[in-house]
Amino acid sequence: MSGFDEEPLEAATTIVRRGRRTEAERVVDRLRELDWTIAVAESLTGGLLVASLVDVPGASACVRGGIVAYDSALKHSLLGVDAGFLADHGAVQPKVARQMADGVREAAAVAGVPAHVGVSTTGIAGPDSPDGQAVGTVHIGVSTPLGTRVETLALSGSREQIRAQAVRRALRLVLDAL
User: Fold this and answer.
1) C-alpha triplet 159, 162, 163: angle, nearest 5°
2) Most buried by CB count within 10 Å: which residue of 145, 151, 167, 173?
3) CA–CA gap between residue 120 and residue 40 (Å, rounded)
4) pLDDT tens, 29-55?
């Protein structure tokens, strides 16, 4: 015996984390601190972004959901992206990322209250480009009650690498907005 009253193992409350927290963990932790919610609109990343968030234990406290609007018609009908702009300019545009981020906040409203944060991804992951833009062109939008920001990236690598890089950058942009 050590001379100390020992607490049963079942009652222990210490959590030990090894290594650095992931970007997704940091986003979820910060949203929970603020008591804010997030909604995700994805095209390029096809669900990877929202999946990275819901992989975090406790994410249900802040993640409203995600919409994978791969088809431009869904970008319009579900997210409110301007149909005329889509027809004239295509989906891989900063304005589309902005409208997707704003639109998903409203699409994920609960009891009339929009999500606090909307994040969107649109771009060309390759291997080919259907509209002549460079493979690796990515636009990420982040919308909060304080405004909307869009970042344009020129990424390189394989299709999988471009999509993974876009997810990491989107999470960082959300953190910057929080």
Assistant:
1) 85
2) 167
3) 6
4) 999 999 999 999 999 999 999 999 999
Q: CA 148, CA 142: separation in Å to the nearest integer? A: 6
Measured CA to CA, the distance from residue 66 to residue 159 in angstroms comes to: 21
Selected residue with higher pLDDT from 65 and 130: 65
Give percent of the chain above pLDDT 70.
Answer: 89
Tokens of 138: 């990515």
Classify residue 8 as exposed, middle or buried by CB count within 10 Å of its CB (0-12, 13-18, 19+).
Answer: exposed
Taking residues 100-126, what's their average pLDDT?
97
Average confidence score pLDDT of the chain: 91
d(CA 51, CA 152): 22
Q: What angle do CA 42, 46, 48 make, to 5 degrees?
A: 95
Do the beta carbons of residue 121 and residue 44 sit within 8 Å? yes
Q: Are 100 and 86 in contact (CB under 8 A)?
A: no
Under 8 Å CB-to-CB from 26, ≥6 apart: which residues? Answer: 171, 175
